[in-house]
Amino acid sequence: MVCHVRKLNRPKHAVRIHGLILSLRDLTVLVVCVAGILGAWLAYGLTGAASHGAPATGQSEATVLSERLPDPLAPPVVPGSDAAASDPVALPAVPLAVGGLPAASAPAQPVAQSASPYPAASAPQRITYPAAGMDVVVHPLDPAAADADSHSIVPPETMDGYWLTPFGTPGAGSANTSYVIGHSWEGLDAPFNHLSSAAAAGDELTVTTSAGTMTYRVDSVTTYTKSTLKDSPIWEVVPNRLVLISCYTGDLWGKNVTVVASPVRAR
């Protein structure tokens, strides 16, 4: 048998690439397209992202936002510095109040103290002691200095009461005991007579002054001999205390009765 070899016609200037046959024209078109794509990609990478501020490919929106928020661990930015000028986030100012604390935490102002419960210290004008049947006008008495120092004071011979001016004055601001003395009378119903028989601890009495009325409560009723009265505890300095002194009706010439009282309230 005779075999014949058949020659195939091939186009001139053809290029064989991995089993593909491309003409020179097709290869030229392919190169131009690839060059155009590469040029466009490079141009976009250099100018597009920078001019529009868009995030890079694959970068999430959360990442971009985190770059714009201040770092809580970063040191404080000093006003006027480069860092402060470049930071676009500004924190709101907190109003300050007393002592540099926030306004909401400022301490409350202290409440004003209430006024004294007693009227201003003033000379007594009248004493009313219902339990002892006593309602007596009071006059000021300024004894001699020697008598005041020795506590040996004799009131005028009337049925009224006498306030010893060298000592305390009833009312707010008093610095000593207020003393009111008066005679007890034999055979007469004098106001001071009932101190010996009717006065008792716990009783209340009132003292009226030009500034108001004060109420006192009786602390004690005590009898002294005339020789021991001048050295008794009633002469101790006690602010705003009241002491009534008279002769003891059971022994007018040998004893005295004293009623010691403390202020309760003002009316």
Structural features:
about 270 residues, alpha+beta, Sortase, Chain: A, two-stranded antiparallel ribbon, about 20% helix, rod-shaped, disordered N terminus
Question: Any overview of this molecule?
Answer:
The protein has 267 residues and is α+β, with helices and mostly antiparallel strands. Among the domains are: 14-43, no CATH class; 124-266, Sortase (Sortase, Chain: A, Beta Barrel), CATH 2.40.260. It contains 5 helices and 10 strands. It has helices at residues 24-52, 61-68, 82-86, 145-150, 226-229; strands spanning 15-17, 20-22, 124-129, 134-141, 161-164, 178-181, 204-209, 212-225, 242-247, 255-266. The strands form 2 sheets. The protein has an 8-stranded mixed barrel with strand order 3-4-5-6-9-10-8-7. A two-stranded antiparallel sheet has the order 1-2. A hairpin with a 7-residue loop joins strand 9 and strand 10. The longest helix is centred in the first third of the chain and has 29 residues, at 24-52. The protein is rod-shaped and about 160 Å long. It starts with 14 loop residues before the first strand and ends with a strand. The relative contact order is 0.11. The model is unreliable at 1-15, 53-67 and 94-103 (pLDDT under 50).
Q: Can you count the beta strands?
A: 10
Q: Could you list the spans in which at least 5 consecutive residues all have pLDDT below 50?
A: 1-15, 53-67, 94-103
Task: Provide the CATH topology of the domain at 124-266.
Answer: Sortase, Chain: A
CATH architecture of the domain at 124-266: Beta Barrel
Instruction: Give helix and strand order, one letter per element, not per position.
Output: EEHHHEEHEEEEHEE
Largest beta-sheet characterization: 8 strands, mixed, barrel
Helix content: 10-25%
User: Which term fits the overall shape?
Assistant: rod-shaped
Distance between the termini: 156 Å
Kindly provide the name of the CATH class of the domain at 124-266: Mainly Beta
Taking strands numbered 1, 2, ... along the chain, how are they ordered across the largest sheet? 3-4-5-6-9-10-8-7
Residues in β-strands, percent? 15-25%
Count of DSSP-assigned helices: 5
Radius of gyration (CA) equals 56 Å
Mean pLDDT: 76
Structural class: alpha+beta
Task: Tell me the CATH superfamily of the domain at 124-266.
Answer: Sortase
